Automatic annotation (TrEMBL):
PROSITE patterns assigned to the protein according to its UniProt record, in alphabetical order: LYSM
Subcellular location, record wording: Cell envelope
Pfam family, one: Peptidase_M23
Listed InterPro entries: Cell_wall_metabolism_enzyme (IPR050570), Csd3_N2 (IPR045834), Dup_hybrid_motif (IPR011055), LysM (IPR018392), LysM_Opacity-associatedA (IPR007340), M23ase_b-sheet_dom (IPR016047)
One BP annotation, GO: proteolysis
GO cellular component: cell envelope
Gene3D superfamilies the UniProt entry points to: 3.10.450.350, Glucose Permease (Domain IIA) (2.70.70.10)
MF terms in GO: metal ion binding; metalloendopeptidase activity; peptidoglycan binding
Protein name: Murein DD-endopeptidase MepM/ murein hydrolase activator NlpD
């Protein structure tokens, strides 16, 4: 017989059936409410985010964003550099840069400074800034390592800006003992050609580098060197120099007076620049001296040689021995290409057998200005300069007449204290260096 079970106890057949349905619904509602409350409670990250918001930021609908803002990306247009090659023209360079003839025309006609582009040389550089659509936006022309011109396209065309780098100036001291020539000794000491020529120019009024230079002479020179970003660009000015010759010491100091004029003076304030150079060209040898009874090399007869012949390679520069005016310049069968210079009323110098002339009749010339180049025109057996010196129309020996010429100018008496103060540092450097090299036993010249 089947057991009888009352209906009110039928739900006990399963664990879930232990509670009435209304109790289960109440429990489910409580659990859902508790879960929502936990989700809405702020955690550590939420607190960090809240404190990161600026206090003065108003959270209005227009300021609220669901995604972070991304800044626009700006790309800098690259410069395209093109070096100038042998035989290059501006049109060829613009073509290599994929620019049109119109771009070239607009740029070169933009300003007077653009005319510098007509003198481009191999080794210089042009840099182009070109837009994505192929338009020229800017161009930079490097004249040399210190100077450049920048052209930038504006609303009305190209604007031009001159850019100049400022080099670092360093002092250098060099010295050498003469074994064969000043030029060779200075080269061996690492002195640039420009400084060598300037050294000869400074002492050219007191020393004849053909007659006077002897083996075992020596010199000290203090000069500037120009550097840019650690790279040597060039030599600058000679600041002081000392030359030891035949037991005498000759010193020269660069001095700038109150008027801004620059010259070189001895320690006593006497200008190193004399009225006439001792020789009108550099680093040569005498092939024939002043001789009233010389045997002429072409005609083989005794004829007066009223000047000095300087043997030198063809093309060697010939300088004006002093300030003056060109009295005559031309060509004759005997003299070849010649130049005559009048120096005031009393003096005249003559230069014969030139390869080419650099001046014309009536030109004003300055001492050591190039007036021509050594050649062998006219009655000449080989390249040389025939140089004559006339005083009141009478030929004089160029090698000795300079000792009889007027004294050079001096620093004004009132400026001597300033002069002494300006050269004091250079004097100390020269003497310290000479002592270190044991350059002693000479008398001041």
């Amino acid at each position: 017989m089947q057991n009888w079970i009352p209906k009110r106890h039928a739900m006990r057949k399963s664990p879930a059936g232990k509670f009435p349905r209304r109790h289960l619904a109440l429990a489910a509602s409580t659990l859902i409410a508790l879960g929502l409350a936990l989700l809405l409670l702020p955690g550590e990250n939420a607190e960090a985010k809240r404190t990161a918001i600026p206090l003065d930021l108003e959270l209005t609908p227009s300021r609220v964003s669901t995604a972070p803002e991304v800044a626009p990306v700006v790309t800098e247009q690259a410069w395209k550099e093109i070096p100038v090659k042998n035989g290059d023209s501006l049109s060829a360079i613009f073509s290599r840069a994929d620019l049109s003839p119109q771009d070239l025309h607009e740029l070169v006609s933009s300003s007077a400074k653009a005319k510098a582009l007509n003198k481009i040389r191999p080794g210089q550089k042009l840099s182009f800034k070109i837009s994505d659509d192929g338009q020229l936006e800017a161009m930079s022309f490097q004249i040399d390592k210190l100077n450049s011109i920048v052209f930038e396209r504006g609303v009305t065309g190209f604007t031009t800006t001159k850019m100049t780098e400022t080099p670092e100036i360093r002092q250098r001291v060099a010295s050498a003992t003469i074994t064969s020539s000043l030029y060779r000794a200075a080269q061996d000491a690492g002195v640039s050609q420009g400084i060598i020529m300037e050294l000869a120019n400074i002492f050219g009024g007191v020393l004849d580098f053909v007659y006077d230079v002897r083996k075992d002479d020596y010199f000290i020179v203090i000069y500037e060197e120009l550097y840019l970003n650690g790279e040597l660009l060039s030599s600058g000015q000679i600041l002081a120099a000392q030359y030891f010759n035949r037991g005498k010491s000759f010193e020269a100091y660069r001095y700038i007076n109150k008027q801004g004029e620059v010259d070189y003076f001895s320690e006593a304030g006497e200008s190193m620049r004399k009225a006439f150079l001792r020789a009108p060209l550099d680093f040569t040898r005498i092939s024939s001296g002043f001789n009233p009874k010389r045997l002429h090399p072409v005609f083989k007869t005794v004829r007066p040689h009223r000047g000095v012949d300087y043997a030198a390679p063809r093309g060697t520069p010939v300088y004006a021995a002093g300030d003056g005016r060109v009295a005559d310049a031309g060509y004759s069968k005997a003299n070849g290409n010649y130049v005559f210079i009048k120096h005031g009323e009393a003096y005249m110098t003559k230069y014969l057998h030139l390869h080419k002339r650099a001046v014309s009749k009536g030109d004003r010339v300055r001492q050591r200005e190039t007036i021509g180049w050594v050649g062998s025109t006219g009655y000449a057996t080989g390249p040389h300069l025939h140089y004559e010196f006339l005083l009141n129309g009478v030929h004089r020996n160029p090698a000795t007449i300079v000792k009889q010429l007027p004294a050079p100018k001096k620093v004004a008496a009132g400026a001597m204290p300033e002069f002494k103060a300006q050269i004091a540092g250079m004097q100390l450097q020269l003497r310290t260096y000479a002592a270190q090299r044991n350059y002693t036993g000479v008398d001041a010249g």
